[in-house]
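Lecture 7 notes: from sequence to structure.

We start with a single chain of 462 residues. Read the sequence below before looking at the structure.
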Amino acid sequence: MTGRKQEFNSQLFQIVDGILLCIGLFAAYLLRAVCSRWLPLIDIGPFSHSQWMVIIVLPFGPILLELQGFYGHPLQKGVGSSLRQMAAAGFWLALILSGCVLFFHLTPPSRGVAMLFAFLAALLLIARERMTIGYFRSRARTGAGREPVLLAGCPGDVKALRQKLNPLQLIEMDIVGEVDIESRPISELVEVMHRHSVNRVILAGANSNMNRLQQAIAACETEGVEAWMVADFIKTSIAQPSFDVLGSTPMLVFRTTPALSWALLVKGVIDRVGALTLIILASPLFLMAFLGIKLTMPGPVIFRQQRSGKNGRPFTMYKFRSMSTDAEMRRAELAALNEMQGPVFKVGDDPRITPFGRWIRKTSVDELPQLINILAGDMSLVGPRPLPLYEVENFENDAQRRRLSVKPGLTCLWQISGRSKVQSFEEWVELDLRYIDNWSIWLDFKILFKTIPAVLFGSGAH
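Now the structure, written as tokens:
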């Protein structure tokens, strides 16, 4: 299955599953209402009281299922694996619904409706998934709907391509022939396309003459047949290739960071909604920090510093001031006490920190003003910590700069790994790159939840 087709199928299944979840919710309410007529149960009122749940269940249900990997590799999954993924998604959906009830004072569903909804939703989703799997397996057995595909290129390249095709791809493709475009005329390629009515020609062209490849692509263009060219002649270790168009010029793009996607848009929404919610909830801490700094030390309450944002773009980061006003001037005299190997500066028992500043650092209250940076779009809730410009200028290699390829954040793997226990900047960078290379919304949620005990118990904080 091609990446585009797999993405289309996944999106289609998400839409269907969202509708099925809403049907399950309505059916659960209907069953509970019917039961209350025959059994001595508490009346749950009209469905209109619970309609708000549809607004949450319809979009978030499929998103949470996707985050659990529910839509990946359906032919290789068993019912048990699907049930575990649904249970995990159901837990987070219940958490979101509970949060809506708590913060927006909405009418909570009855326990009977909730239990029936969980059962019916699981039943409907499993039924849809098993029917889908049965359909795909039936097509594989009968060969119906298999796409006629022609392989072209040097014999060695074609053989290597065949070996890379997995069973799932071979189920959907019917390889009707192979053409050596190096030794045979392009007219033979056209003749085979006509004979088998092929939908697609895959050009394995690592060792083929570029002129012959262009002729083959031109022939496919004339025939209206898709031409796919293997692009593994460019070897990368991290970057993922994709295709795009710049104006009318075709471009092969290599990315080491996530491409623009719905997941990134969701991350942006979570950042801003989360930052605004935290500012409201933490307003007493803002007031306490403001008064504490004003009463215990001279100078401004907010510390402003130029930090490196995405791709190194400078921005002004805000913190509650925890050091004396001459802290920046005294940095040079404390260089010998630096506990971090590399270009960054970290001192455990920093004499520049005031007594009240030590407390707000221990509790991470000093970081709260960065929620304003998140609302402004300069930072995210989760991402590599932004470093001062002078530290970025001292980076020793390109790998260290790659941590600047995403938007910086309030917390990341470094924070939940015990900040001050990491003594080497190389270890710090390794954690940041691990986050970048494995990014997902689910990983962001895990880091955010693990940050809570790290902040409450001050693990690794100075």
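The chain has a mean pLDDT of 84. Keep this in mind for problem set 3.
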